[in-house]
Design a protein that fits this description.
The structure holds 2 protein chains of 2 kinds. Chain A is of the alpha+beta class. Chain A is built from 22 helices and 22 strands. Helix content of chain B is about 40%, strand content about 30%. Chain B is globular. Classes of the chains: A alpha+beta, B alpha+beta.
């Protein structure tokens, strides 16, 4: 429980528990050595131990008693407080009965201990859930408290982020959180995005860069022009998502609450039968009533009910610390069994930034010349291909050319008798240019000047470095990995082979992606789970249609956050493997807790019915199960940053 | 209309489940989810009668867990 400070209420309870426990130990020791029952003789010998134990009982349990009375007045028969009181007061009554009838005086210690341990168990639960809640609210630290609005006269004023309007300029000092999404207008600094993305490397931001709310400004002052109102800002979207995360309940949670609904009444009814039926037959009332009371001790299902949502909550919390937002425990549950991963190509498996990957000059020409000519021809175009040429050329293209767009073929640029042709094979053939075909995969741009072939540029998209590992990892788990792309067959096949995908669909128009995913959804078996992974920019409909929509690089794209079920805040495919690991661990812990708790409870019930155990075992079993299940749930939170094979380089910041 | 309320002093997970069941039975409530972990109740109900329904929700919850308060 380190790093968790107790609330006032918990501190009071802890004080009471310690005091009661100390008194109980002293009393118990005195009782065992002196035998309090033998201090006085006669039929009233039970009075002294009864009074002493009752005092401890009331100290530790007055609130339980009070709640029991109040709840039974509301007609809550199967209320835990009531059942606990019934069991313990019953045990007291039984002990008095034994004492009054001249039997050996015992059983007061048990009655007292049951309630004491029940309270200890409750206290432990309260601490565990409190700690777990706190770990999630650490993420809530991204909520900004104020914004420094820059007035027209240059002065600044601290105001509520909600009052800032689009177009306002705000000042962010080092150490402060960026309160709203915007664009840097002045200054350059490094930003800490750890709370958002789990990425520990700071990100640079300079004038003209878009910045998102929730980042912490580290080095120097920034002036930011706000582009989104607070409720639309990344921070608001994330907080909303995290706060609502437990609304969507998993099947496991629903199962356990349903189980609890029937469990308590069944146990209570069996206890009643156990007290009455064998009692009537054997007329050995005290034995059977005692066994029935042991039943009531185990009848509280709280431990069971608490450990399941706690496990899921811890799983969602662990994921969010690594920049993976999961919208509900049902998605965590489903993701664990996800076996079909459909990837969008551009921007997801590939970087989406086209780059000149190969320059093939014709004999007696050089690379620089091809780039210079291509840059002239493409200078007015905003197409990614044109931009990649400009980036590679790196200088301003010469002006003064008349540019003519030849639809579907390319561009011709002419100036003072000089004609540059820049485009695809068709353009070359049409102008009867003797070109050398480029066989590499990607988009090929052929360049010719005054009817003579100068060379070609191969432009292709870069595959993300981690894509191969992640896909291999998923394939290794028996998942299908399929790529959807608008590119032609040859490019798609090449990329699919390079990454190791199990399948691909090429030449899809954007709207066809939805129909493609829909037909996959129709074909899949009932228990198959299809995930679609996209960058969330154009694929919101697909993200919504698929069983689990995963948006990558969700930072800044609120449409993606809304449409998807899992958001990877960092533009890194490794998040998928990590989420899978977290889901797997969470689900195995949930399963262990369900099986373990139910098995122990049933075992105690059976043993109690046969009189093999006593109330001590029953209460230890009950509270012990709760504590173990909760401790087990806490394991979900363990360290995920260190991949199994690698050196534990980053273990330090994961432990924080 | 959907609204989310914070719950104060919701100390028992089983009570949360009981509250959820009780609220779901109230006439006019379309859906409800009580989260023990986040101490929140998300409720979707008839917009025209929302206040009236909420009063019944509060009453139902009070009956199950008198310590727990719905912050409105």
């Amino acid at each position: 429980m380190k790093g968790y400070s107790l609330s006032k209420k918990e501190k009071r309870t802890l004080g009471r528990i310690i005091a009661a426990l100390a008194l109980f130990v002293v009393l118990f020791a005195a009782d065992k050595t002196v035998v309090l029952g033998s201090v006085f003789h006669g039929p009233a010998a039970w009075v002294l131990p009864f009074c002493l134990y009752l005092a401890v009982y009331l100290l530790i349990g007055y609130d339980v008693l009070w709640r029991a009375v109040r709840n039974i007045a509301h007609g809550q028969v199967f209320d835990e407080n009531f059942l606990m009181c019934l069991a313990t007061l019953g045990a007291f009554a039984l002990a008095i009965y034994r004492g009054a009838t001249g039997q050996e005086i015992e059983g007061f210690d048990e009655a007292c201990a049951v309630l004491l341990f029940y309270q200890i168990g409750e206290f432990f639960q309260s601490c565990a859930t409190g700690k777990s809640r706190k770990s999630i609210s650490a993420l809530m630290d991204i909520r900004p408290d104020y914004a420094n609005l820059v007035r027209e006269d240059g002065t600044t004023e601290k105001i509520d982020p909600e009052e800032v309007k689009i177009g306002d300029t705000i000042l962010v000092n080092p150490g402060e959180k960026i309160p709203l999404d915007g664009v840097v207008v002045k200054g350059a600094s490094a930003l800490d995005t750890k709370a958002l993305t789990g990425e520990s490397l700071p990100r640079d931001a300079a004038a003209g860069d878009e910045v998102i709310s929730g980042c912490v400004n580290i080095t120097s002052q920034l002036e930011i022009q706000v582009t989104k109102e607070f409720y639309d800002s990344t921070v608001s979207k994330i907080l909303e998502l995290v706060e609502n995360a437990s609304e969507q309940k998993s099947k496991a949670e629903n199962f356990i609450t349903k189980f609890a609904k029937y469990y308590t009444p069944v146990v209570v009814i069996v206890a009643a039968l156990l007290a009455v039926v064998p009692g009537l037959i054997t007329s050995d009332w005290s034995t059977w009533v005692y066994r029935a009371l042991s039943f009531l001790v185990v009848s509280c299902p709280c431990a069971l009910v608490i450990s399941i949502p706690l496990s899921f909550f811890a799983g969602i919390g662990a994921a969010s610390r690594h920049g993976i937002l999961i919208k509900g425990s049902n998605y965590l549950e489903k993701f664990n069994v996800a076996n079909t991963f459909v990837f969008d190509k551009t921007g997801t498996l590939t970087k989406g930034n086209f780059a000149v990957s190969k320059i093939s000059p014709a004999p007696e020409e050089n690379a620089e010349e091809i780039l210079r000519l291509a840059a002239i021809a493409e200078q007015n175009s905003n197409h990614p291909i044109a931009r990649s040429v400009a980036v590679r050329y790196g200088k301003a293209a010469e002006g003064g050319y008349t540019l003519t767009n030849i639809a579907g073929k390319g561009i011709s640029a002419s100036k003072e008798g000089e004609t540059i042709l820049c485009g695809n094979e068709k353009l070359m053939r049409e102008n009867e240019i003797d070109y050398v075909a480029e066989s590499g995969l990607g988009t090929v741009v052929y360049v010719a000047k005054n009817g003579r072939f100068v060379g070609s540029l191969l432009i292709s998209d870069e595959i993300k470095p981690e894509a191969k590992d992640v896909v291999e990892n998923l394939n290794g788990m028996g998942c299908k990995t399929i790529m959807l792309t608008g590119d032609n067959e040859a490019i798609a096949a090449d990329v699919a082979a390079k990454i190791g995908l199990t399948g691909y669909k090429a030449s899809l128009l954007p709207q066809n992606k939805v129909t493609e995913v829909e037909s996959m959804l129709k074909e899949k078996k009932q228990k198959d789970v299809l995930c679609f992974v996209g960058d969330g920019i154009n694929d919101a409909p697909v993200l919504m249609r698929s069983d689990i929509g995963i948006a990558m690089g969700g930072v800044g794209s609120d449409a993606a956050i809304e449409a998807s079920d899992i958001v990877l805040m960092k533009d890194d495919l490794k998040g998928i493997s990590l989420a899978k690991r977290i889901a797997k661990k969470t689900m195995s812990i949930v399963f262990q807790n369900i099986v373990f708790s139910i098995a122990v409870k049933v075992a105690i019930l059976i043993l109690s019915a046969f009189g093999i155990t006593n109330m001590w075992v029953a209460v230890f079993g009950d509270v012990g199960v709760a504590v173990l299940a909760i401790l087990n749930a806490m394991r979900v939170n363990s360290n995920y940053t260190v991949p199994r094979k690698c050196a534990p380089a980053s273990s330090k910041d994961a432990a924080q | 209309m959907k609204k989310v309320y914070k719950l104060e002093d919701l100390d028992c997970a089983n009570c949360a489940a009981k509250m959820e069941r009780a609220v779901a039975k109230i006439d006019g409530v379309d859906s409800v989810s009580v989260s023990f972990m986040t101490q929140r109740m998300a409720i979707e109900a008839d917009e025209d009668r929302f206040e009236e329904i909420m009063e019944r929700v509060v009453k139902a919850c009070k009956k199950i867990e008198p310590d727990c308060r719905i912050l409105r």
